[in-house]
């Protein structure tokens, strides 16, 4: 064996056990009570976990209005690795007028030679032309991009309900997963316009302009559309108990509906948006952070299995004129980029508050941070678990190490962290990707460019039977033509 990780406590999404892990040719080739190899890592007192899979982050991505994220595939992947991730799946954003294949080629050129960990992309579809639907989405799927994200809000990104049904149907036909940013555009615009007209422009009004009702209405509509054509759908960044309840209900009904939430909704509140001056801009994301009762409700949904994935939604815009304050120091909340960094803190925060805090088990932590993403995004069992034949993507954690979060300790290109000053116990100390050390002894030891594109397969929807819409039954007169 090339490498053996000795004496650690191994945990997967289902089991926790003492074992040595043997690695040959970048894959796990032995799991046994005692192994020896050419090289050995002593993991005594440590946890040996599947490397995290960060499945929602914005890297080298420009917004529809042209603002570029502060992180590229080099800094974003390094930061992800320091946070215990061995794979990430940022977005490749199509903007109107761009072809899908042109979009993927662009992101290939951005990722090529830059990433220290393996990567894929979710395709953002903002311009579902006939060509995109008939030719390019199937080509994207064949190329290993097997998840498509759509927006129900933002004038330059949003799709209407008919376009949503088109995309859901194409995705379903090819076995892809659709993801959705679900907020009601009309409600947000209506209330935002009134707030700004009344001079209420500070960051705190961002939360007021994105009420829970806007999320609940859109999630309800998105689920209704997906269930109508019996297509799988993942609701990203769920921020309210109302939204989470809708996801839970649909899952209980057997629909192929999945949910994601993010650290900001568990650890921050709208009080943070009300910090002095423009400081609140650092905490602006969409949907917005809410309140402590919401945090408790979302924890319960994490415990109960409503959420399959827990992602950072790392959307790095610096607190300066290149990012949040590009429209000046007195910009209104409508002019401030939405998003905050957190790619390196997602797993430590969840471990510290979730596992050490007794809210979730270590196995749930592994499922939420890695295994479920691998399954939903078509990478399992190659990634997301520690099993014979799987890529040796492994994070070794010190469950006792306590650190205080500071921006100086981050490895992204940001000038702030919204989690500044927070005490966190449990940190990844070594991260392996395909058996190669990326982080060792708290240091980066891998070269940018070693990360490979992962051509993803069909997502695994086992255990989600789906729902039937009688009017779309192919046995009906018109069903055969219109059945998705
Ligand atoms: N949606 C995201 O997924 N991330 C950042 C901002 C947004 O609207
Ligand atoms: Zn979004
Ligand atoms: Zn996002």
Automatic annotation (TrEMBL):
One of its GO terms (molecular function) is metal ion binding. InterPro entries: Amidohydro-rel (IPR006680), Hydantoinase/dihydroPyrase (IPR011778), Metal-dep_hydrolase_composite (IPR011059), Metal_Hydrolase (IPR032466), Metallo-dep_Hydrolases_sf (IPR050378). CDD domains: D-HYD. Keywords: Hydrolase, Metal-binding. The keyword Ligase does not apply. Carbamylation allows a single lysine to coordinate two divalent metal cations. The keyword Metal-binding applies. Transmembrane segments: none annotated. The modification N6-carboxylysine is found at residue 149. Its cofactor is Zn(2+). Residues 47-438 form the Amidohydrolase-related domain. Pfam families: Amidohydro_1. GO terms for cellular component: cytosol. NCBIfam families: D-hydantoinase (TIGR02033), PRK13404.1 (NF009941). Belongs to the metallo-dependent hydrolases superfamily. Hydantoinase/dihydropyrimidinase family. This is Dihydropyrimidinase.
């Amino acid at each position: 064996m090339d490498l053996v990780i000795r004496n650690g406590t191994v945990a997967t999404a289902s089991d926790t056990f003492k074992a040595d892990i043997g690695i040959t040719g970048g894959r796990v080739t032995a799991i046994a009570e005692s192994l020896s190899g050419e090289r050995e890592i002593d993991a005594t007192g440590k946890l040996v976990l599947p490397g995290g899979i960060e499945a929602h982050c914005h890297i080298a991505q420009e917004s529809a209005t042209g603002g570029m994220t502060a992180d590229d595939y080099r800094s974003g992947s390094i930061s992800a690795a320091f946070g215990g991730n061995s794979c990430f799946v940022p977005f490749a954003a199509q903007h109107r007028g761009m072809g899908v294949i042109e979009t993927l080629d662009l992101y290939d050129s951005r990722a090529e030679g830059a990433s220290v960990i393996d990567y894929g992309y979710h395709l953002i579809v903002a311009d579902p032309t006939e060509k995109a639907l008939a030719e390019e989405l199937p080509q994207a799927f064949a190329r290993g991009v097997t998840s498509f994200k759509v927006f129900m809000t933002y004038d330059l990104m949003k799709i209407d309900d008919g376009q949503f049904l088109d995309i859901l149907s194409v995705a379903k036909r090819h076995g892809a997963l659709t993801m959705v940013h679900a907020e009601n555009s009309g409600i947000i615009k209506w209330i935002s316009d009134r707030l700004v007209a009344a001079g209420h422009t500070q960051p705190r009004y961002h939360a007021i302009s994105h009420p829970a009702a806007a999320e609940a209405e859109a999630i309800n509509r998105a689920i209704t559309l997906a269930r109508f054509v019996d297509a799988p759908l993942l609701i990203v960044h769920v921020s309210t108990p109302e939204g989470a309840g809708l996801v839970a209900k649909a899952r209980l009904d057997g629909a192929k509906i999945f949910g994601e939430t993010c650290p900001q909704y568990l650890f921050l509140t709208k009080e943070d948006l009300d910090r002095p001056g423009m400081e609140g801009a650092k905490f602006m994301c969409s949907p917005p952070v809410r309140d402590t009762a919401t945090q408790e409700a979302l924890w319960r949904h994490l415990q109960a299995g409503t959420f399959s994935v827990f992602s950072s939604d790392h959307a790095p815009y610096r607190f300066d004129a290149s990012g949040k304050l590009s429209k000046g120091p007195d910009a209104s909340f409508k002019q401030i980029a939405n998003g905050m960094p957190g790619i390196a803190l997602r797993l430590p925060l969840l471990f510290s508050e979730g596992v050490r805090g007794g809210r979730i088990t270590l196995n749930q932590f592994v499922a939420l941070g890695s295994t479920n993403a691998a399954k939903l995004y078509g990478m399992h069992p190659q990634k997301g678990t520690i099993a014979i034949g799987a890529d040796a993507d492994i994070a070794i954690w010190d469950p006792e190490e306590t650190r205080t979060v500071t921006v100086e300790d981050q490895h992204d290109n940001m000038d702030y962290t919204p989690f500044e000053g927070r005490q966190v116990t449990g940190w990844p100390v070594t991260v392996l990707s395909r058996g190669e050390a990326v982080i060792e002894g708290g240091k980066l030891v891998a070269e940018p460019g070693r990360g490979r594109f992962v051509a993803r397969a069909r997502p695994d929807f086992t255990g989600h039977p789906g729902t039937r819409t009688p009017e779309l039954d192919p046995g009906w007169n018109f069903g055969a033509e219109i059945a998705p």
